[in-house]
Amino acid sequence: MSTPLPPFPKRQESSDEPVLMELTAPDDAPLRADAARNRARLLEAAARLVEEQGVAKLTMEGVAIAAAVGKGTVFRRFGDRTGLLMALLDHTEQRFQAAFISGSAPLGPGASPVERLHAFGSHALRQTSEQLDLYLAAEPDASRRFTSAPYRVRFMHVCMLLRQASSGSGTDIELVAQTLMGYLDPALIGHLTRQRAMPPERLESGWRDLVDRTVGPRLA
């Protein structure tokens, strides 16, 4: 049974974005310092192998060899290959989260909500396109897709920006946010860039147009 989404943070005059960082690993207990170092070491080895050989060739045994640990250590830490890929994706996502939570404008605080939505989607599209194989390989099954930590953080960030822009317009924030998130789906990005040969710049322009048509005229 999938875990329900937590309630949306209430709109505040000051930024409530630090709340989102708590969702990066909602089900994990805090790691001991040595366990955290070992986990980081394994993820660094996995990231290096992905960069050198590609996601398709990433194996638990290969990560163990690269990190100079037993294969059982990798399985105990991540469970299986999908768990490893999800952890690697979350490791990548945390840098993006830091940028839109506390980075410079327009991605971070300091710009209007619509400008930040423009920047958020463009950055997400570029990052997903550049690491598409990882995003596709780590895509959770249907029952977990909308409750995975990376998705929830992005979704709640979009909800927050929509709420800041809405000014009590009565718009269904959750449904608008889900519509926008659908545009950033890795499978769709893969289809458009690989099967339809669309350049990333076209997707970014389409994102800005979608934000302006769906959000700007009614909420800005």
Topology:
Elements: H1 18-21, H2 33-53, H3 60-67, H4 71-78, H5 81-102, H6 113-130, H7 132-137, H8 149-166, H9 173-183, H10 186-195, H11 200-214, H12 216-219
Helix pairs in contact: 2-3, 3-4, 4-5, 5-8, 6-8, 6-11, 8-9
What is the compact description of this entry?
With 220 residues, the chain is mainly α. The protein has helices at residues 18-21, 33-53, 60-67, 71-78, 81-102, 113-130, 132-137, 149-166, 173-183, 186-195, 200-214, 216-219.
- Overall CATH class of the largest domain: Mainly Alpha
**CATH architecture annotation name of the largest domain:** Orthogonal Bundle
Number of strands: 0
Question: What is the residue-mean pLDDT, rounded to a whole number?
Answer: 83
For the structure shown, list the relevant keywords:
Arc Repressor Mutant, subunit A, Tetracycline Repressor, domain 2, 2 domains, 66% helix, 220 residues, disordered N terminus, mainly alpha, globular, 12 helices
Give an overview in words.
By secondary structure, the chain is mainly alpha-helical. The chain folds into two domains: 31-79, Arc Repressor Mutant, subunit A (Orthogonal Bundle); 81-220, Tetracycline Repressor, domain 2. Helices cover 66% and strands 0% of the residues. The protein is built from twelve helices and no strands. It has helices at residues 18-21, 33-53, 60-67, 71-78, 81-102, 113-130, 132-137, 149-166, 173-183, 186-195, 200-214, 216-219. The longest helix is centred in the middle third of the chain and has 22 residues, at 81-102. Mean pLDDT is 83; it is low at 1-16 and 18-28.
